[in-house]
Design brief:
The structure holds 3 protein chains of 3 kinds.
Chain A lengths: L21 H9 L11 H5 L3 H4 L3 H9 L5 H5 L6 H5 L6 H11 L2
Chain B lengths: L1 E2 L9 H25 L2 H12 L1 H16 L2 H6 L1 H28 L13 H4 E2 L5 H29 L14 H28 L5 H11 L2 H22 L7 H13 L11 H8 L5 H5 L13 H10 L2 H10 L5 H5 L6 H9 L22 E4 L8 H13 L4 E3 L10 H5 L3 H18 L3 E4 L2 H10 L6 E4 H10 L11 E4 L13 H10 L1 E3 L22 H16 L5 E4 L2 H10 L4 E3 H7 L3
Parallel strand pairs in B: 3-4, 3-5, 5-6, 7-8, 7-9, 9-10
Antiparallel strand pairs in B: 1-2
Chain C lengths: L3 E5 L3 H12 L3 E5 L7 H4 L3 E2 L4 E2 H10 L5 E3 L4 E7 L2 E6 L4 E4 L1 E4 L3 E3 L16 E3 H8 L13 E8 L15 H15 L4 E6 L9 H10 L4 E4 L4 E4 L5 E7 L4 E7 L1 E6 L1 E3 L3 H7 L27 E3 L9 H22 L1
Parallel strand pairs in C: 1-2, 1-9, 2-5, 9-20, 11-18, 12-13, 12-18, 13-14
Antiparallel strand pairs in C: 3-4, 6-7, 7-8, 10-19, 15-16, 16-17
Classes of the chains: A mainly alpha, B mainly alpha, C alpha/beta.
């Protein structure tokens, strides 16, 4: 490796044109209500483990759409259902998490 | 009474023998397989119970009461009770009396398997005896009883609502074949015996029919075809039996001893679960019981369809049915054979593989050491009226207490458990147990019935008494720590699923509510209480799909004409408050407002 | 003979329409269920964006309807279609046959206690936007401490919320919250003021300037995240939980007063009237107009007209403009029928 005195950074831009959406599409088929999220953050605010693990269904859902790794958040969910209760759009968040835990590899 | 056919045989008994052999072989193999699938501990338990006198007595009593006399069904619905017990018990008596006839009159033929079934064909009446007439009378009497039951079953097919049951499971093709052959057996037997009655003798059903038929039909010519038809009907019924709902007849006779032996469902596809699944008689009581079937929705997701799909191994449908259920437990509470709909579903959910493992988000919360540790639970943090009221009551009563979850955020593990992730739930339980035991409390006070059920059934907390807030507050009143006065408002009490059917607590909440307010009852209460629709038990039901269920449950509560609704669960409270046209309050809040 | 026109609702829509219709020369009746005219606006302190005081405004509007027959504390018991138009029987025993009816029944403020997680009626320092206006009008309110250190505003309480049965945006709450935030900051310059919003919907004339003022001149903190739950600390302060969705982390803050911006729902009293007069209800729970583009003030039935928030959430200028338009539509309708 020749040392040029600088390194090339990978682009941090989310390129929607080339983004692989298959995982999100798969999720939508299983949990159609997931499309209704308006990013209000109620789920993340009320989350039982959010305080410790930064878990937020909103972030999981948005991350999936933008190709982020959300495994760590998913694995901390206790399925207590508070997020389902507070969601103003009535998204079935528990089903969303369980299905993601199933299809995520 | 003498033997009429010297050989003691006629080819028309062959269809019956074929059917009988088939059904015995099938059930025998099924029995061996199920016993093989049991764990060795369960197997030992089962065999031991079969030679223990108390369980032998219990088994015989329960089989008589449930399978033949259908006593639980009588208690629920007299018409249904009569219909089922007339067929089951009547048929049983026909078989018993048939054997008695053979033993008394032609004892040499007792080794012939088919003889009691076709007795009237093989004998001729030589002289009339009291004993013979009595037996013939009893035979005709029980045949009449069975046929009256069959007539009711036919009538029920046309006018279902007369029996107070709105919906039945859709019969499959084979179920229909079984049904029609069963209906045919007894009229055909009556015809055959009637055509033979001038030879064999008979009683009040068969002799007059014989006389009547003789007026315009040649009896001798009709005799054999009817015996053939009778035998064929038996053959068809027994050949389709293993593939129809009628499998519940032998399955229930196995289910009762297994349950009396203390066996539990451990795997939804094997052993005891198989017996339960086959014991489902497809009566459809669970359809009307199910809160999801409001407006005829989700009918095919009821427990009767779960057992059907489990018999077919239809994986896609099994998953769908298992995930949808609210786990309210009403189907199980009303089921005549005790099919554990919710339990089977949780075990089905437990069969799934998850690519993402669960890691417990360990917390290092230090908890003050007090006598009473109050656990509000996740949901109660969204319904602060409950937590605040409990806190206020405890303060007024001077109880030495502290919160386990003051600023929210500890789950008891029940939602994880009902989602079928049993091992994951156990890790939550282990961490919570540590936290509670380290606090050094001697009472764990729980206001959420969902948590309470979990603490009761899945926690091991030596030295700590787990109590629900309702008996706890009742005790505070009994010991004069607080005093309440009765308000003029009349409440209808809604039994939360997890507290009522889940923990069997029906009287204590009514006692407590009655001390602080007027109390009214709705059309469906106690074990028949209708789920609010907000249950965490369901994984796949969306918010919009639950609206009608909540409204139906509310409408049932409104039948009481009460001013307001009282409940004892944060989830019921939040769910009802969304659509209710009158106030919905937790018992704790009502009591707290009435303290003087 | 002078033709009769009945206006149901004595809020700003009803007042403005009554003035116009009366000026056009019709016999005008104004039916109001409460004991005063001016509706919700009358109990407000000042109006955005110019901070106009409402008291003189409503006074002017009321003095402009001299000659209109006003029935206070009166409700419409029954509406019946007759040959001449509609026969209305009022709760005060009077029956009127009207050639045209204007429904200006307005909205009802969302009952904040229905969002129990916010603790209205449970905690000691949670109030609504209406409570705050009443307090600014001089009413005493124990829930607002003498010198609050931190004040929070929760946008969208009962609006944009399917769980509360209201999917609509209430339109005015974002601006009301900013207005009230500024007013609080003016009174308590040392207090930190937080607005918890999902989206800031500031669409009207000078609204955005108002927002800039709030940021630049008053230093109001805007947090993008819906409040999920409120609890009380041992020392009696409120602890509010939200997610700061812009950095993606849960956020909590202790406040001395929390103001819930209750949204607008259709007036439930109108349900009975709608049934009697066979008026359709739209999917959002408000009355259904003939269409929502050019005929928003016309109902599906001949001779019945709408003005104001009975057909959906509206601002004050929109309501007043609709009231005038409705007066003209009624005039044209009656000319055609002559």
């Amino acid at each position: 490796m020749i040392d040029f005195g600088f390194t090339l950074s990978k682009s941090s831009t989310v390129d929607l044109t080339t983004l692989d959406r298959s995982r999100y599409d798969q999720l939508i088929k299983l949990v159609p209500t997931a499309r209704m999220c308006m990013n209000c953050g109620s789920c993340g605010a009320t989350c039982t483990v959010g305080e410790y693990k930064g878990m937020s269904v909103r972030k999981v859902l948005y991350g999936i759409q933008r190709g982020e790794d959300v495994k760590a958040m998913l694995s901390s969910c206790m399925l207590c259902g508070k997020c389902t209760m507070v969601c103003p759009r009535g998204i079935n968040t528990r089903n969303l998490i369980l299905n993601l835990c199933k299809i995520y590899d | 009474m003498i033997d009429r056919i010297p050989s003691g045989f006629h080819p028309f008994v062959i269809p019956f023998l074929v059917g009988m052999a088939f059904v015995l072989l099938y059930c025998g193999f099924a029995l061996l397989r199920i016993i093989h699938q049991l764990s060795w501990q369960d197997r030992k338990k089962f065999f031991l119970s079969l030679i223990t006198p108390t369980t032998i007595y219990k088994n015989i009593r329960d089989i008589f009461a449930n399978c033949l006399l259908h006593i639980p069904l009588w208690k629920r619905n007299k018409l249904f009770g009569y219909m089922h017990s007339s067929i089951a018990f009547g048929w049983f008596m026909l078989i018993v009396l048939g054997h008695l006839e053979v033993i008394l009159f032609v004892p040499g033929r007792i080794n012939l398997f088919y003889y009691p079934i076709f007795f009237n064909y093989f004998v001729a009446e030589a002289d009339e005896t009291i004993r013979g007439s009595l037996l013939f009378f009893l035979m005709d009497f029980f045949l009449l009883i069975v046929m009256s039951g069959i007539a009711m079953a036919m009538f029920r097919r046309i006018k279902n609502h007369v029996f107070g049951v709105k919906r039945m499971a859709r019969p499959t093709f084979l179920n229909l074949v079984g049904l029609y052959s069963l209906w045919a057996i007894f009229p055909l037997r009556w015809l055959a015996e009637s055509f033979t009655a001038h030879i064999s003798g008979g009683s009040f059903m068969t002799i007059p029919a014989n006389w009547l038929f003789r007026q315009f039909l040649g009896n001798e010519l009709n005799m054999l075809p009817t015996w053939w038809a009778y035998s064929f009907a038996l053959c068809i019924f027994m050949c389709v039996l293993p593939f129809t709902r009628y499998m519940h007849i032998p399955a229930e006779m196995l289910l009762i001893p297994m349950r009396n032996a203390g066996l539990k469902v451990r795997n939804s596809r094997k052993g005891f679960a198989k017996v339960e699944v086959f014991a489902c008689p497809n009566c459809g009581v669970c359809i009307d019981a199910c809160p999801m079937t409001v407006d005829n929705g989700n009918v095919k997701d009821c427990t009767v369809y779960l057992t059907r799909q489990l018999r077919r191994n239809n994986e896609e449908r099994i998953q769908e049915i298992s995930d949808k259920c609210l786990l309210c437990g009403k189907c199980e509470a009303l089921c005549q054979v005790g099919v554990e709909g919710p339990g089977l579903r949780i075990l089905e959910r437990a069969r799934r593989d998850y690519a993402v493992p669960f890691t417990y988000p360990a917390t290092d919360k230090a908890i003050e050491s007090r006598k009473v540790l109050y656990f509000a639970g996740c949901m109660t943090h969204l319904t602060p009226s409950i937590g605040r009221s409990v806190e206020a009551i405890l303060k007024k009563a001077g109880v030495d207490f502290t919160w386990l979850d003051p600023q929210g955020g500890l789950c008891c593990g029940r939602p994880m458990f009902t989602a079928g992730r049993i091992a994951e739930a156990k890790s939550i339980v282990a961490n919570m147990e540590r936290l509670i035991l380290e606090s050094g409390c001697d009472t764990l006070l729980v206001s959420c019935p969902i948590c309470y059920k979990m603490f009761r059934e899945n926690y091991n907390l030596p030295g700590v008494q787990v109590t629900n807030y309702i008996p706890f507050i009742n005790e505070l009143i009994d010991s004069h720590k607080i005093r309440v006065e009765k308000s003029d408002i009349c409440y209808v009490y809604h039994d939360p699923c997890e507290l009522g059917r889940g923990c069997g607590m029906y009287n204590e909440p009514r006692q407590l509510l009655g001390r602080s307010a007027g109390i009214a009852e709705s059309a469906h209460n106690r074990e028949e209480s209708i789920c609010c629709g907000g249950s965490l038990g369901s994984l796949s039901l969306d918010f919009a799909q639950r609206e009608n269920m909540t409204k139906a449950a509310l409408n049932d509560l409104y039948t009481s004409n009460a001013d307001a609704v009282a409940t004892a669960c944060p989830l019921c409270l939040a769910t009802f408050a969304r659509y209710a046209d009158r106030p919905v309050k937790d018992i704790a809040e009502i009591v707290n407002n009435q303290i003087i | 003979m002078k033709q009769n026109i009945v206006i149901i609702g004595g809020g700003i829509a009803g007042l403005e329409a009554a003035k116009q219709i009366h000026n056009l020369g019709y016999q005008t009746f104004l039916v109001e269920k409460s004991d005063h005219l001016g509706g919700h606006v009358a109990s407000w302190h000042r109006l955005f964006p110019d901070m106009i005081a409402t008291k003189p405004l409503i006074k002017d509007m009321i003095s402009a309807i001299k000659g209109v027959t006003v029935f206070l504390e009166t409700q419409v018991n029954d509406v019946e279609g007759v040959r001449e138009g509609y026969r209305l029987s009022l709760s005060n025993g009077i029956n009127i046959t009207a050639q045209a009816v204007l429904v200006a029944s307005g909205f009802q403020l969302f009952e904040a206690q229905r969002k129990e997680e916010y603790g209205y009626g449970i905690y000691d320092h949670v109030i609504t936007n209406a409570d705050l206006e009443a307090w600014m009008n001089g009413n005493k309110d124990q829930r607002i401490p003498a010198a609050p250190k931190a004040i929070g505003f929760v946008h969208c309480v009962g609006s944009r919320d399917l769980k509360a049965g209201n999917s609509q945006c209430s339109k005015v709450c974002c601006m009301t919250a900013i207005k009230q935030a500024i007013e609080m900051k003016e009174r308590f310059p040392n207090a930190e003021v937080y607005c918890f919003y999902m989206d800031l919907r500031l669409f009207g004339k000078k609204y955005e300037d108002f927002y800039i003022n709030a940021q630049r001149d008053f230093g109001i903190h805007f947090v993008r995240g819906r409040v999920s739950e409120v609890s009380e600390t041992i020392d009696g302060r409120l602890q509010v939980k939200a997610e700061d969705t812009l950095i993606g982390r849960p956020l909590k803050v202790q406040l001395d007063t929390l103001v819930l911006m209750s949204g607008m729902c259709c007036n439930p009293l109108i349900q009975k009237l709608a049934e009697q007069a066979r008026l359709e209800i739209d999917s959002d729970g408000f009355l259904k107009s003939r269409d929502n583009i050019t005929n928003i003030i016309e109902s599906g039935r001949e001779g019945i007209f709408f003005a104001g928030a009975c057909t959906g959430t509206k601002t004050v200028p929109e309501t007043v403009a609709e009231a005038r338009a409705a007066a003209l539509s009624i005039h044209n309708y009656l000319l055609q029928n002559d």
